[in-house]
Amino acid sequence: MIGEAMGRIEKIFPDIHISSKRQIISMRNRVIHGYDKIDNEIIWGAIVRHLPKLKDEIDTLLD
Known about the structure:
Distance between the termini: 22 Å
Protein name: DUF86 domain-containing protein
Largest sheet: none
Family: Belongs to the HepT RNase toxin family.
GO molecular function: hydrolase activity; nucleotide binding; RNA nuclease activity
Strand content: under 5%
Helix content: over 70%
Structural class: mainly alpha
Keywords: Hydrolase, Nuclease, Nucleotide-binding, Phosphoprotein, Toxin-antitoxin system
Radius of gyration: 12 Å
Number of helices: 3
């Protein structure tokens, strides 16, 4: 869901700065289209390391 939403945000508001916007969209595409074997550890690592920063950036944009 996050990757799909980020893709839409990029199309509608391309000037909004979210530090990992392209990486989020790319990961969504790999997962949804199954380009590679999906490694659960990589997905979980991305969630644990990057989701808190994304949340902070979104909170800042909403303020």
